[in-house]
């Protein structure tokens, strides 16, 4: 299968979501389909220059390219909230009301739709809680999937490797919004001096230790280590699933095959207005979590300045959530001291931090 045909399949899949339709086919094939549910901690994006997707999405795309799996990216409902109205409702229910069931029920439905025309399906998502994972599995079985044909894979990564990747990701996001990583981080935490790579890693490890139960271990999962940012990622996945690559391509060549799939996904998502819609939901979640008026009012500002302020606030939220994990609960971990809140407001309004 060529990269062009893969991108075309993805475009057709996304277009079908607009009308809440899945792939065509009968339910008879679902029972015989091999389904792999891959989940890993959020914020573990690939640091390789050829790819930047999350570890579980990267794994799903790899299984598509090298092993002919149909990949259901678990972020479809969230990232396509601007294409499918029901998906925006699901996102608001999950982040603002704590009701995650509709989102995960939809993940199961999309997987079952994929299984109608494909005998091998992989669903990837940063699902952190076992009750959410078990909900997906329960819905898969209720929809006709065979329990003995569902394989659960939990990706693990060395915390330092994860934190180092997050540092570069955060620095890049801050730079794109005209800020330094030091300014960005001082908007939600207290520290002296400049934010260095090693300091960032240490602070990430401290935050993870304080919230060590955030990403639960599933008792039925096959544990797969993907700390090596090299071909061992693929080797470990293949070994866990009993897969054999037909060709021994080098790591860079495999990444180059996976990259167009991720780019096609990103293009659709970015053009849909997802970032703005998601930032709006995060801002609401932030206000709920903090019970304060951290959001800056743009009313009365000229349109250009208001847009810049919105972009800065969006960047801060995304950087913070990236560091702590993608959940509205993570926002409650912020340092809410007067100094931090003042710096945050100053940075959003002016692009600079002014401290007394």
Automatic annotation (TrEMBL):
InterPro entries, per database record: P-loop_NTPase (IPR027417)
Entry-linked SUPFAM superfamilies: P-loop containing nucleoside triphosphate hydrolases
Origin: domain of life: Eukaryota
Protein name (database record): Zeta toxin domain-containing protein
């Amino acid at each position: 299968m060529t990269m062009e045909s893969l991108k075309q399949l993805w475009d057709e899949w996304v277009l079908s979501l607009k009308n809440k339709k899945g792939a065509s086919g009968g339910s008879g094939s679902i029972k015989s389909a091999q389904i792999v549910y891959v989940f890993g901690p959020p914020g573990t994006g690939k640091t390789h220059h050829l790819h930047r997707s999350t570890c579980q999405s990267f794994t799903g795309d790899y299984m598509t390219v090298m092993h002919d799996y149909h990949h259901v990216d678990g972020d479809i409902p969230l990232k396509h909230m601007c294409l499918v109205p029901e998906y925006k409702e699901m996102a608001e229910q999950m982040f603002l009301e704590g009701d995650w069931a509709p989102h995960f029920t939809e993940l199961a439905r999309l997987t079952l739709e994929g299984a109608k025309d494909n005998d091998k399906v992989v669903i990837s998502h940063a699902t952190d809680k076992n009750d959410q994972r078990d909900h997906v599995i329960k819905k898969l079985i209720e929809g006709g999937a065979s329990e003995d044909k569902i394989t659960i894979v939990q990706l693990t990564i060395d915390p330092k490797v994860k934190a180092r990747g997050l540092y570069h990701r955060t620095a890049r996001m801050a730079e794109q919004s005209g800020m330094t990583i030091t300014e960005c981080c001082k908007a939600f935490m207290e520290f002296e001096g400049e934010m260095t790579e090693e300091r960032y890693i240490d602070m990430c490890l401290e935050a993870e230790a304080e919230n060590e139960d955030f990403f639960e271990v599933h008792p039925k999962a096959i544990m797969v280590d993907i700390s090596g940012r090299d071909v061992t990622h693929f080797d470990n996945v293949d070994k866990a699933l009993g897969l054999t690559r037909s060709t021994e391509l080098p790591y860079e060549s495999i990444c180059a095959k996976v990259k167009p799939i991720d780019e096609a996904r990103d293009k659709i998502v970015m053009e849909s207005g997802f970032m703005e819609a998601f930032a709006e939901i995060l801002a609401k979640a932030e206000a709920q979590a903090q019970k304060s008026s951290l959001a800056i009012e743009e009313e009365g500002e000229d349109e250009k300045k208001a847009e810049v302020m919105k972009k800065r606030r969006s960047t801060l939220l995304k950087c913070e959530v990236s560091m702590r994990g993608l959940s509205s609960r993570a926002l409650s971990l912020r340092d809410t001291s007067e100094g931090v809140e003042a710096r945050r407001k100053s940075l959003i309004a002016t692009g600079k931090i002014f401290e007394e």
